[in-house]
Amino acid sequence: MATQHSRSAARVMMAPAVVLLLGWMLVPLIMTLYFSFKQYLPLRGGDLGWVGLDNYVRFVTSSAFWPSVVTTLAIVGGVLLITVVFGVLLAVLLNQPMWGQGIVRILVIAPFFVMPTVSALVWKNMFMDPVNGLFAHLWKFFGAAPVEWLSQASMTSITMIVSWQWLPFATLILLTAIQSLDSEQLEAAEMDGAPPLSRFAYITLPHLGRAITVVILIQTIFLLSIFAEIFVTTQGSFGTRTLTYLIYQRVLESQNVGLGSAGGVYAIILANIVAIFLMRIVGKNLDA
Amino acid sequence: MGQIQLNQVTKRFGSVEVIPPLDLTIEDGEFCVFVGPSGCGKSTLLRLIAGLEDVSSGHISIDGVDATETPPAKRGLAMVFQSYALYPHMSVRKNIAFPMRMAGIDEAEQNRRIEAAAKALNLTDYLERRPGQLSGGQRQRVAIGRAIVREPAAFLFDEPLSNLDAALRVGMRLEISELHERLETTMIYVTHDQVEAMTMADKIVVLRAGVIEQVGSPLELYHAPRNQFVAGFIGSPKMNFIEGPEAAKHGAHTIGIRPEHIAVSAESGPWSGVVSVSEHLGSDTFLHVHDTGLAESFTVRADGEVNFRHGDRIYMTPREDVIHKFDAKGLRID
After folding, report:
1. Is residue A18 in a domain?
2. What is the largest CA-CA distance in chain A?
């Protein structure tokens, strides 16, 4: 019974949560905006007063800005492509009845539980190390010269590491979606003369449309801000400096909080642009 | 053409034999109904014919050609599923076109067949809609349309009306029968509803636990059921069975009498009992009679005008010429 009374009671009850969430979001946002208009160098004189839009102009005109945007988008795009394609394939595979299904499914999900820092370190030292890494041994076994992954193929390496982490997430979501596919639809298509590949293309894939959209949207949010993987592997060198990493360098390595804050605002704008494009492209899948 | 022959067909799931060796011939142009209680293997049998399940042994031939190993799409059969199995992301037009698209039929011919099917099934106004925007009956018609355009050797229906409400079911039943009259194509129809079987079939196949109990026309099954199971399954309301001394008088272990073959009166008759419930349908009245001393409960179909109430004592006279006699194994005695 939604009387006037119960509605105002509900507002009072919800108020603490709303205030907390607003504070959580608004305080950092306002501080970022505040610092972005200041010349603030903690180790070189501290707060040096208002500078207007100087930080914004400096951040955009620096030679590192556009490459970092491109790098960010390349990593996001690459990881999305790999996780969606392999996620769909793995989901189809895991949906087949097989022996030890439960254990296999848990193993597939496992990478998602490994912390980004740890997984990046494992990849860096155990797989990609040019002297002792497993890949180096594999290359040597076939008589090839080991690849120095993180310097020679830095973007590929980072994309591989991040994809490995996010593939389980995509697989999991897509697997649950594929399980809800009515088997009679596949049988009907079979009777209608559709070979397996056509059944996949005309029945399974459209059925997965909404789940793929969810995977893309959620992953994009997290992938735009990947940091740990880059921090423990290339430190932003060899063309792997993303916008997030550039901001980190401005704030902590150059000790320029104002400039970094301006970069943070740009990161928000970039995220929104990406979000608009994504919703244009895949958003219609979410309408029932 | 669409003659389907099953020769010693069996089906096992693991160690469970769902269908013991079974022979059956369905003639070209026949409307054949598989009927039986749920779990009797009728759907499995249909899926074996469709090719969606592999036979464990035996042979299936279509038009005299062995089709046991033929994949479903190549058998030239079209199936209408219980859930309709429409493709939800495609429009009605694309749904109907799908089998033709897979067969590589050219666009003009596709459109001609779609228009013809849509006209026959009253779907012309709905061709651009998605299945989600249609009612149950319309979805059913789309599924039939998708089957018709393939011009199959035979149609397979797997309980197609079970998801519809009662009024719609009667309407669709009629439409499918009319469709059969018009196309003269073989149809195999699976149902657990004996009314559907009786009204639609040229030939009824009564199944129990994967075994064919009897094959025959609806009236053959009604007038001369081969055993007690068929006698009880065909006909509504159910046949009354009487054991003991009353049956012995007729020289049988059990006798059966259909509710419509009993006359009731308030004064006299060989059998008597007390009315427990009387169901007035207007045209008929079904009387459920207790305390007859013959069987647990007795059903009588009387005229719509009779006005017996709960607790009334009535007298019943069976028509002697239509009493069915069965031996101790439940088989018919003639």
Report:
1. no
2. 79
